[in-house]
Amino acid sequence: MRAKNSSNNSFNTFNPVLTEGLNFQLSQPLLRNRGLFVNRAPIVIARRNLAQSRANFEGQVNGLHLVGDQRILDVVQARENLDVLRKSLEAAQASYDHDKRSLELGALSPFDIYRSESQVATRRVAVIQAEYSLRQSEDAFRLSVGADLDPYVRALDLELIEPTETSGELLTMDAQQAYEKALQKRSEFEALRQQLANDDTSIRVAHNALQPDLNLSGIYTSNGLSGNQINTSATPPRSFLLGVSATASARSLGQFSWIRIRVAVAPAHPQSRRRSHVCH
Fold first, then answer.
1. Largest CA distance in the chain
2. Confidence at residue 123, expressed as pLDDT on a 0 to 100 scale
3. Domain range for residue 8?
C-alpha cells in the first residue's frame, strides 16, 4: 500500500510525505472451525459422494446384467417347454391315428375316438400358448439388450449359440464364505456405507457450528516513510532531507523501523433458536 500526501502545515515532520505499508495478519479459531477437520469436511464429503455415485452406477450395471441373464434363461425355458409340448402333441397325434385306424377296422367304438381327438386338441392349444410365451420372452430379451431399436434387427430370429448345459466338473464352495464374499461385493452396501459416513461427518460439522466463536488474531504492520523532512524546532523550520523517493520509503519499510503489533481475542456466542426466530 503506497500513498503520497502534501500539506501547507509547517508543523508536519515530512512534507510532502510518501508512505508505504506492509501488513501481516493471522487469525486462529480456538473453538468453532478449529483444526483441519472442518476445512477438509467438504472435500471428504465430495469424495464420498463420488464413491457413492460409482457404487450406484456399478449396482445399476449389475442389475442390467442380471436382467439380461434372466431374460436369456426365460427364453431357454420357453424353448424347452415348447419342445416338450410339441413332442407331447406328436405322441397324442400318433395315438389318435392309431385309434382312428382301429375304428376303421371295427376294433374301437365310435365314442372312444372323441377322447383321442380331445387330447390332440388340448395339446395343440398348449403348443400355441407356448409359442406365444416364447415370442414374449424373446421380445423381452431384445428389449433388455436394445435389439428392438432397429426394425431390421428386431425382425431377425433369435438364435442362442452358447449352450445352456453345464460341462465339466462343478466347483465346490463353502456356502458361508460365498455369502460373506457376496456381501462384500454388493455395490448397494458400499453406497450405503458411504452415505452413513457422510452423515457422520455432517453431524460432526453441525456440532462444531454450535460451539462459541472464539478467535485469536494477530496483526504485524510495518510502515515506510520518505519525503522532505522538516526540522520544526528551528525558526524558521528548515528542510534537511530533500526529495520524495519511493526507494527510500521501500528501504524504510524493509528495515521495519515503524512497526505495530496487535493481538486480540474476539469471543462470540451463537444465538439461541428463540432469539434468532425473533430477529427474523
1. 160
2. 93
3. 2-32+213-279
Instruction: Give the pLDDT confidence score for residue 254 in this predicted structure.
Output: 53
Whole-angstrom distance, CA of residue 233 vs CA of residue 237: 7
Number of domains in the chain: 2
Cell of 255: 528495515
C-beta neighbour count of 51 within 10 angstroms: 16
Give the per-residue pLDDT at 234: 57
Q: What is the pLDDT of residue 45?
A: 94
| Per-residue model confidence (pLDDT) at position 32 | 84
Average pLDDT, consecutive stretches of 10 residues, N- to C-terminus, the chain (280 residues): 60 62 78 85 94 92 88 90 93 88 78 84 94 92 84 80 74 83 86 93 90 81 64 55 51 56 64 43
Per-residue model confidence (pLDDT) at position 176 = 87
Q: How many whole angstroms separate alpha carbon 266 and alpha carbon 7?
A: 38
* 198 and 72 both lie in a single domain: yes
Residue 171 placed within a domain: no
In a domain, 176, yes or no: no
Residues 143 and 128 grouped into a single domain? yes
CB–CB of 78/137 below 8 Å? yes
Q: Is the pTM of this model over 0.85?
A: no
CATH number at residue 146: 1.20.1600.10
Closest by CA to 113, choosing from 88, 92, 127, 91, is 92
The last residue of one of the domains, among 173, 207, 241, is 207
Going 39 to 43 to 44 to 49, the CA torsion angle's sign is positive
Show the DSSP H helices in 171-267 as ranges: 175-185, 187-209, 246-254
> Do 254 and 156 belong to one domain?
no
Q: How far apart are CA 102 and CA 35, in angstroms?
A: 100
Beta strands at 258-268 and 14-29: parallel, antiparallel or unpaired: unpaired
Length of the chain: 280
**β-pairing verdict for 2-5 and 213-231:** unpaired
